[in-house]
């Protein structure tokens, strides 16, 4: 892989104002600006009912950022009312970086994906954490209730255009190359768990890993 030391090249032309930004990208069309909504449409409910994956973006009080994937069977996000949704939390690595951010700054950005679809559903809002609620039973998967849930009050909701997914060819199987980068076991051995043998990590992240999701 070729790398270029652009920071020392002296040729960076930085954008430092909104006027400069607009000079480069132009102005959005009216329908793009006006597509924002504050409550769920029936189409949004259908999308959430068929989405198995959401990316949750958060920012801490100090400006540090985090994006965490949340996934479960399709429809894992529960619609509480026209302006409120809930996302279950399952066992993970316990870092909970995003949750730390939410405790300091409730603003979140959500991106919902449906496999094979190049467009996405975006929701921005304010979140809070709950450790128990009457709807937890509805979030039970394979006999496991969620550890906690993220309740999001919607400020903005709209659909994002498909260009990025089309450019990346994300859903085209003939472009997939899962072995292009080192395996999860190799990454863990080199960067995260050097005291464990590669053989142990290959077994840990092997087929049995999927049996420990809940």
Summarize the entry for a quick read.
The chain is an alpha+beta fold. Helices cover 24% and strands 26% of the residues. The longest helix is centred in the first third of the chain and has 9 residues, at 42-50.
Q: In terms of topology, how is this protein built?
A:
Elements lengths: L17 H8 L4 H4 L8 H9 L2 E7 L5 E7 L6 E4 L2 E6 L7 H8 L2 E7 L6 E11 L17 E13 L2 H6 L15 H9 L5 H7 L10
Antiparallel strand pairs: 1-2, 1-5, 3-4, 4-7, 5-6, 6-7
Helix pairs in contact: 6-7
Write structural notes for this entry.
The protein is α+β, with helices and mostly antiparallel strands. It has two domains: 35-167, Pnp Oxidase, Chain A; 177-212, no CATH class. Helices cover 24% and strands 26% of the residues. The protein is built from seven helices and seven strands. The protein has helices at residues 18-25, 30-33, 42-50, 97-104, 163-168, 184-192, 198-204; strands at residues 53-59, 65-71, 78-81, 84-89, 107-113, 120-130, 148-160. Strands 2-1-5-6-7-4-3 form a seven-stranded antiparallel β-sheet, with helices on one face. A hairpin with a 2-residue loop joins strand 3 and strand 4. The longest helix has 9 residues, at 42-50. The radius of gyration is 20 Å and the shape is globular. The mean pLDDT is 95.
């Amino acid at each position: 892989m070729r790398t270029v030391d652009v920071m020392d090249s002296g040729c960076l032309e930085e954008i430092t104002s909104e006027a400069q930004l607009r000079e480069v990208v132009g102005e959005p069309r009216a329908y793009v600006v006006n597509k924002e909504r504050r409550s769920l449409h029936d189409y949004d409910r259908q999308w959430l009912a068929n989405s198995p994956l959401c990316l949750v973006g958060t920012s801490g009080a100090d400006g540090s950022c985090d994006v965490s994937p949340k996934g479960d069977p399709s429809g894992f996000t529960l619609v509480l009312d026209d302006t409120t949704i809930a996302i279950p939390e399952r066992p993970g690595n316990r870092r909970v970086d995003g949750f730390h951010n939410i405790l300091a700054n409730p603003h979140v950005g959500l991106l919902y994906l449906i496999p094979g679809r190049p467009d996405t559903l975006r929701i921005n809002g304010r979140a809070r954490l709950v450790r128990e609620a009457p709807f937890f039973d509805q979030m039970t998967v394979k006999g496991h209730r969620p550890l906690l849930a993220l309740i999001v009050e919607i400020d903005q909701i709209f659909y994002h255009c498909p260009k990025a997914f089309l450019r990346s060819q994300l859903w085209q199987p003939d472009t997939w190359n899962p072995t292009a980068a080192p395996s999860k076991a190799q990454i863990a051995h080199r960067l995260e768990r050097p005291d464990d043998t590669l053989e142990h990590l290959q077994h840990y992240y092997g087929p049995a890993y999927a049996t420990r999701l809940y």
